[in-house]
Sequence to fold (516 residues):
Amino acid sequence: MFKSLIIYEFEKFWFKKINIVCLIAILIVNFLSLKFALQSNKAAEMTDIVFSSSLNFHITSLQEMLLTAFNAIIITFCILSFHEEYRKGNLRMTFMRGISIRKLYIAKSLVMNLNILLTILIHLIISLLIALIILPKTSSSPLYFKEGLYTISDVVFFSIRYYFLAYLSLLTFGSIIEVLSIKCKSVAGVLGLSLGFVFLNFIYISYVSFLLKDYPISDPMVLKYNSISLVFVQAKGAAYFAAGFTDVFLYSMIIIYLIFKSLSYLAFTNKNYLE
Amino acid sequence: MKSMIEVQNVSKTLNKRKVIQNMTFNVMKGDICGFIGPNGAGKTTLMKMATGLIKPSEGEIFINGINVQRDREKALFEVGAIIEVPVFFEYITGRKNLRNLARLNIGMDRKEQLKKVEEVLELVGLKDRGNDLVKNYSLGMKQRLGIAQSLLNNPSIVILDEPSNGLDPIGMKELRELILSLAKEFDITFFISSHLLDELQKICNKYIFIKEGCIKWIGDVNSLVIDKEKDLEEVFLDFME
Fold:
């Protein structure tokens, strides 16, 4: 039965043309990133972190697009899979069937997580291909928050950690949007609150940097406070984690993910549907 | 005769207002039971409770002898329903919508599920239009597609909330014929809410009249129309006064 629920949810996800458009948009996002990289390369040395090469373009392009394009994709996925289906009545037809709503939620979440993984993997593959074809080929590259140049094996290790935390941050952001999608009565409400959440994150980061202005940004205390800001994690935290600086961002993302996933589960399985 | 839907002392409070008040009734096997009341009487709320969408504040509902609130999955196993309007993905075909929903049919392999989709499309007269996008369907066709989805799991009970809403006279006639043929051929019990009394008069063998969340009258057709010159609407209005 659970397998059927997964296939049922997977099919529904890809019935929605906007989700397909989001996937195609990754290609456009990569080309925009490439355009930016080619411009930056003109004014940068090969040893500079902003210099994009065949070895590091997949990292620099994700770093640029994580906060903007990828978060926008997550909001779209969540609105279509949770808000539209829950609020507009598609799920009513499912809820009236003799199936477990708990299992349905788990299936829905797994399919969502799988599709976010697919999105980020497609980004990885496209950026690697673009970099190999267009950008300068190098045997070593600088990495965020690390001194010196690194060979391919170091870059692979860094990339795995970077992509892993980036993926986890997207899942965490998704879990927050899920709660908003189920609770809000309109798409405008979900969009407004989602953007409000991102905006609040920026205010929080500014507030932390103001409060702890005497400490350097890489100070463990500053990083600890900033680790609860999803925006900071996406902008810098993932790179700090990948560089082996601290694991605090990993723990904070897991905790926030679990909190919001629990809230989302409780809202979804509420015994009074839409009351 | 077996009781298919058993509502026992059910009450429901929404926003501090008691919308259903101590309701008790049975729908027996083979019945086509009309659930009649003016707008806001609590018809949809009761049907939502019967299909497990919301839970009663007090009382219990049994489907096929199984408590809906305690054992939802088992109780709804043989239930097909349309509550409010059926919602489909508009930009895919009716057949694809049903094929997707058929995946929820427990105990059927994919081949059987696909066969079932073709069967229900045939039953509701949409076989030839199955490959049309739902956005191109008329209201009547969408309603028929809704009934098709409610039949996907071989239900023994079908609960329909205002099924003739928005249908033209031809659509209503087709729906009436469909319900009668399904009840006769497949021995399906129907529990149908409506405020279109004429429609129900032509198909139901039992009525439940409600007003402001309270039952006003329950009985079969024969015990209702005492004065043969009165039609159902007049009798209903008498009860509502």
Q: What stands out?
A: Residues 3-78+157-240 of chain B form a domain with the Rossmann fold fold (CATH 3.40.50.300). The longest strand of chain B covers residues 3-14. Chain B has two domains: 3-78+157-240, 87-154. Residues 169-186 of chain B form the longest helix (18 residues).
